[in-house]
Amino acid sequence: MTTVTAQQEEMSVLKSKITELQTALFYTESVSPIKLPTHVITDVEVDVEGRIWFAVPRPTMHIEAFEKEVLAKLDFFKKGKDFFVKVKGVAALLTDASTINGFETLSADMKEKMNDDKSIGIMVKIEDVQFVDNTPKPAQNWLKASRSQLSSWFF
User: Which structural domain range is residue 21 located in?
Assistant: First the structure.
């Protein structure tokens, strides 16, 4: 298997996991005193080039006060699922309609959301992905648990 095929397969797995989870916390790791607030993201798109696209409400402060590129984290989760996904990358703020419309991989629906006056588009270039297994450990019978506790005390 070539590295290109392996990367495409990894991206396909990541896309399916993110689609399955649907919800993420987006937060930046900027050292700037003016930071984007943490947002709950529910509508994302993942392209084959390793970028995650979404829109967040436009901040009340002037958009030029924010850094155009910042380190960011996305924690994808869903109640009842036995895994979650942590993504780290560089987030770029997209405020110009011509820039947003220039990306061929974006759907028309996502472009419309990003071009809305009340929101800004964000593109996160994926640098690191962590799949975390959250499977609950099987519960032990109370009788077995008490027996092993007693035996550990005496032996």
Answer: 3-154
CA–CA distance, 30 with 135 (Å, rounded to integer): 33
- State pLDDT tens for residues 25-54: 999 987 777 788 889 998 899 988 889 999
Q: Dihedrals φ, ψ of 46, to 5°?
A: -120, 125
Q: Are 71 and 90 in contact (CB under 8 A)?
A: yes
The span from the CA of 147 to the CA of 130, in Å, is 38
C-alpha pair distances (Å), 135 with each of 22, 40, 78, 149: 19, 24, 13, 24
Spatial separation of the C-alpha atoms in residues 5 and 85, rounded to whole Å:
22
Q: How many domains does the chain have?
A: 1
Give the global pTM: 0.78
Distance from C-alpha of 120 to C-alpha of 114, rounded to nearest angstrom: 5
Distance CA 80, CA 95 (A): 36
The pLDDT tens digits of the residues spanning 97-144 come to 888 888 888 888 998 988 888 899 999 999 999 988 877 666 666 667
Query: Can you give the CATH number for the domain in which 150 is found?
Result: 2.30.110.10
Q: ∠ CA(89), CA(87), CA(93), 5° rounding?
A: 40
